[in-house]
Amino acid sequence: SQVDSAGGEVMRRLLIITTLFLFALAQAASAATVVIINNDGANEGFNDPTPAAPVGGNPGTTVGQQRLNVFQHAADIWGGLLPSAVTIRVQAQFNALTCTSTSAVLGSAGPITVVKDFAGAAVPGTWYHIALANKLAGTDLSTSNDINATFNSSLDGSPGCLDGTSWYYGFDGNEGTDIELLPVVLHELGHGLGFSTLVGSNGQQLNGSPDLFETFIRDNTLGTTWDNLTNGQRGTSGVNTGNVVWNGAWVTLHAPLYLGGTPKMNVNSPPSLPPVIAVGRASFGADITETGVTGDVVLVDDGTGTTSDGCEPLVNGGAISGNIALIDRGTCTFTSKALAAQNAGAIAVVIANNVSGPAPELGGTDPTVVIPVVSISQSDGNSIKAVLGGGVNVTIALDPNDLAGADSNGRVQLYAPNPYESGSSISHWDTQAYPDLLMEPFISDALSSSVDLTLAAFTDLGWLDVLPTGVRPGMSNVVALSNYPNPFNPETTIRYDVSPPQDVTLAIFDVNGRLVRSFEKAKNVVGVHELRWDGRDNRGVAVASGVYYARLATPQKTLTRKIVLLK
Hints:
Helices cover 16% and strands 27% of the residues. The protein is an alpha/beta fold. Helix 6 (317-320) links the parallel strand 17 and strand 18 (324-328).
């Protein structure tokens, strides 16, 4: 069976935000051939004759040629990573897409055809994107092209389109205030190659059958994957923010290679406050470390209007100096608030939200802010203010065992905002992922030519049997450690991955650093390995409920994973 899906709900759109991050890219064997089919007319898109100077490794001398060079460069990156004996054909064009002074649809892409029940399909009765189906079948199952991709031509200087921001056609990630086309093309091709679901916003499956991507979408509230849900349950799950995850083993294993820890506010006193308060990151200020910053919390006073909004020089600088400044959101920019506190001698800044909801991410850029800055929710801010008279002492630190953008079992979260966002929901990693990932719904200047966790997702989907030894985008050497489930009872699976070959030691310790269970001590180990811990020590005695640590040591690095036994 096959369905032509061009123009349907599998087309994806991409918006923009800004931050900073860069990965390099390794090559894999058995490269696929990905060709770009110019679908533009004369003097437009890829055929635009406007003269252009070569830039960032792109030798093109016209706008059209530079665009085509970027597309082919992205095609070569994916082709070098994904094995297929069948040529992957991408028909592409530049058209005027939605664009305002503050936001834009940068591009969209999806499979032209999806098929099921073909020779080589691992999951019966399930829709596959055509490029992956062709790879698995070893033959071309469709006479049409495989992927359709459309990109925004309005971005090159059209009035009112992102205030004059243009595409950057270099390959080097030096886009400045412009938008680098290369990661946008990699992102959209990722959708066309398989990183997207065919399920509609109401939870309706395509012609009543699940798609392959859907089989990896897990709702943690319901405890199962989307292919086991009703239409109504899928529709509800699509807006179950924070509780929808990718259930593939390869992504979970490799998430620690790409995701950092989660910043948290640990309350040292008073005991009436929660022991841990969730915080939001800022795109500016000093990095939050595992050691963290400890100090008393002091509410700022700028002596004007809403005195706690920190929009004027602070009049209580003596109280702020050497402490953590608490500032209310509103009136002025986040960066100006942080500078006011920093100038008064604050060692860190906490900005309390002024509307209900979770702690927000704080945007802005100012290299002169050199202290850590985080946000907290309005309710947490009110709780802290209520007890400031008795003294509040906190530590703002990074928890390395709680991956940003993953659940407690290390499964990476999918984007499930409420309300549902057509073209963005579910078919992307969640925006809580940090650092930014290629397949998030917003492009950022953190991205360039790396496909990061997308390759692990494609391994789960069946593009590769395993991630090739030594091939980890952005990492020349790999040491990864995870476990599932977590918390657990009665046993948990500990999984580790190393390359190149090296000596490893794996053991379990209690919270006091005492050895509980010795697992592995081997030489020249490479690849993925799994061991099961049944909650017993080296003597075979069942240990008590509580927190334990799995420690993987290699000559490259030592990783520690917090695991919780609940009885």
